[in-house]
Amino acid sequence: MRNVPQVWIAHGFIVVSLIGVADARPPAGDTLAVAREKMCVTEGAIDQSARGRLTVDSPKMRAYVNAGPSQEVESRFRYLGPTAEASRLGSGESRRQFGLKLRAQDPCNLVYVMWRIDPESKLVVSVKRNPTAHTSAECGNRGYQNIKPRGSLEVPRLRPGDAHSLRAEMKGEELRVVVDNSVVWEGSVGPQALGLTGPVGVRSDNVRLEFDLTTAETSDRHHDHPPDCKSGPGASD
Predict the structure, then answer these.
(1) In this structure, what are the phi and psi dihedrals at residue 124, rounded to the nearest 5 degrees?
(2) CA distance 8 to 17
(3) By the 8 A CB rule, do 208 and 86 touch?
(4) Under 8 Å between Cβ of 73 and 213
(5) What is the pLDDT of residue 226?
(6) What was the pLDDT predicted at 237?
(7) Domain 19-218 has CATH 2.60.120.560
(8) Segments in the chain forming alpha helices (H)
């Protein structure tokens, strides 16, 4: 299949990118389904439905995969609508969103790929970097930097009942985000993320979901015995 150029206008210039469906094939190698017991939930709750899917009904959910160093992660999810109660971010803003975490070293140092639903539908990649802080009490909501992509496409507006896939692949500084087999974001997250070492994870704010999570299999045995799960206010990002 040939790459079909995607065209958009930025700052008065027409930019052509070869991101698109043809570039969005799944990575080579095996993938591993992440079971609930392999996830460390630092805030909120992740339950399991009768069909075996992971479910979220908490205003704030934060979790990471407590095994493996892979930085390729995918979630196939169904958006079920807003939660009955709503929480605000540290900035005071109310937002509905779901996304993935990469290189989640600690609550103050990680990379986010967030699918925002409300008040604006868009995909946002950000790095949270606080080199001298390692708990939520130390960094709060400081250190966020939104990253501009080399190329991007709009994501669908989510409505209750919609099902989609969201995948992030990170190699060095380079990040690629795939939605429903189309590359919607690609670019460099910058050198500030290179020094981060940590697992992948998930995050949601004010949304109800059911989802599956998979990561790329790795031969690195360094993480055969992951650290104990640490939860609570200090560990939540």
Answers:
(1) -125, 130
(2) 9
(3) no
(4) yes
(5) 53
(6) 66
(7) yes
(8) 136-139
- Whether the model pTM is above 0.90: no
The residue among 134, 113, 116 whose CA lies nearest residue 189 is 113
DSSP 167: E
Reported in sequence order, the residue ranges of the chain that DSSP labels E, i.e. its strands, are 6-10, 13-17, 31-33, 39-43, 47-48, 54-56, 60-65, 72-82, 96-106, 109-118, 122-128, 144-146, 151-152, 163-171, 174-179, 182-188, 201-205, 207-216
Q: For the chain, what are the domain ranges?
A: 19-218
Look up tokens 């599956």; give the residue: 212
Q: Which two tokens stand for residue 93?
A: 């803003």
List, for residues 196-208, the tens digit of each pLDDT value.
999 999 999 999 9
- What is the Cβ-side half-sphere exposure of residue 227, based on CA atoms within 13 angstroms? 9
